[in-house]
Amino acid sequence: MSESSDQEVLRLADLRKSYNVGEPTQIEILHGIDLTLRRRDFAALIGPSGSGKSTLLNLIGLLDQPASGELLVLGQATSGLEDSRRTQLRAHTIGFVFQFHHLIEAFTALENVLMPWMVTNGKPDKRMLDWGRSLLDAVGLANSEGKKPRELSGGQQQRVAVARALVTRPALLLADEPTGNLDTRTAEGVFKLFRRFNEEMGCAVLLVTHDPRLAQSCDRVIELVDGRIVRDEVSKAR
Q1: Who has the most CB within 10 Å: 46, 76, 127, 200?
Q2: Is residue 175 part of a domain?
Q3: Long-range contacts of 50-53 (CB under 8 A, 24+ apart)
Q4: Residue 84 has pLDDT above 90, yes or no
Q5: Is the dihedral of CA 33, 36, 39, 44 positive or negative?
Q6: 107 occurs within a structural domain
Q7: Which residue range(s) make up the domain with 221?
């Protein structure tokens, strides 16, 4: 692991989020969230539908801004950042894996993997091409770099999405129901990939799931109910 496993990656301090601010229909969705993640953390975020999980994930991923409170990424406070700086910070420090892979059909597997890097840096050089290939190799797709998404199975496409999320060597990987559309065997393979990169790259993992078995396979379980964290504990499986 290249970075200290105890390094703080994310800290939320009294984070609140409201919708329809200033209107009669204003409603607070998140009520003072406090949370810290370190590089060693491999955590599940669980809770019933409507509990605020997606809202919280959007805030952590810097895709939305809180009404109040502070969110720090690698010690950098984000509340006062301009949009361009938030975008830059997100691109360099956070990887995303969603339930639907969202690969670009016109691009090859390798081009899809490299896309987050190319958006900010342009055409990849040999070093980045080699890194993209090594990630495809790591997810078991070394011989598929030239294939388009339609030539890959659903599980293979999701593995491409995992490699894509890691191409910028993020400090934090956010996974939103990443195995929801996969069969049990493929889901277990994707989960093992998350484990591997958490241990080898020092990439903190926060995995949103409705699957209690998957949650208990994580080292830490964070439960959100009605916009509040009601449980944050080490998993019994650890």
Answers
A1: 46
A2: yes
A3: 51/224, 51/225, 51/226, 51/227, 52/17, 52/224, 52/226, 52/227, 53/208, 53/224
A4: no
A5: negative
A6: no
A7: 8-76+85-101+170-234
- CATH label of the domain that carries residue 60: 3.40.50.300
The CA-atom distances, in angstroms, between 51 and each of 39, 58, 184, 186, 219 are 26, 14, 26, 28, 22
Q: Is the pTM of this model over 0.70?
A: yes
CB of 181 closer than 8 Å to CB of 150: no
3-state secondary structure of 200: helix
Tokens 């370190």 sit at which residue? Answer: 38
Residue 83: φ, ψ to 5°: -55, -40
154-188, pLDDT tens digit by residue? 888 888 988 898 888 899 999 888 777 777 777 78
32-67 confidence digits (pLDDT tens): 999 999 999 999 999 998 888 989 999 999 989 998
Q: Are 45 and 53 in contact (CB under 8 A)?
A: yes
Report if residue 158 sits inside a domain: no
- Tell the residue number behind the tokens 């987050």, with chain if given: 116
Burial of 83 (0-12, 13-18, 19+ CB in 10 A): exposed
Expressed in angstroms, the distance from the first to the final Cα of the chain is 20
Domains in the chain, number: 1
